[in-house]
Amino acid sequence: MQKRSLLVWLAAAPLAACGFRLRGAPDFSFRSLYVQAQPGSAIARELRRTLQGSGGNLTLLTEPAQLPQAEAVLDILSEQQERVVVGLNASGQVRELQLRLRLRFSLRNQQGVELIAPTDLLQQRDVSYNESVALSKEGEEALLFRNMQTDLVQQLMRRLAAVK
Fold first, then answer.
1. Of 6, 24, 118, 148, which is the most buried if we count CB atoms within 10 A?
2. Domains in the chain, CATH or no CATH each
3. Is residue 100 over pLDDT 70?
């Protein structure tokens, strides 16, 4: 019995000492943020939802009239979804696609000083394609675009938290 508990302790000790901890709520250097984006922007909508649910020290301002009160303004300059053919079969039909989601953003303070210069974030996924199951592939593409969108929002959150 003592050997077993010693082995368990020896296996658990390196894991406890590695410094692993769960990622907590992000700590932003600004207390209020206004997200400026095109109407209907899916990334802006998910970002707002993520910021509101983050439980940190940040107040998200949502009304355009509140813009002058924001300590920081996140400008979502563009977001693009792309489908690029990367492979054809012997008969010239599409065999493989690359899905890309590109986001361009910048962050500035109340005085207009850029905290983050215009920056591009890119997510891409490769997906096989078969015309005989086009409907299911369309659903798979939509799911992949949603996953890429979530990944971009998480990257953006980390960038915002890194601003000092």
1. 148
2. 25-162 (3.30.160.150)
3. yes
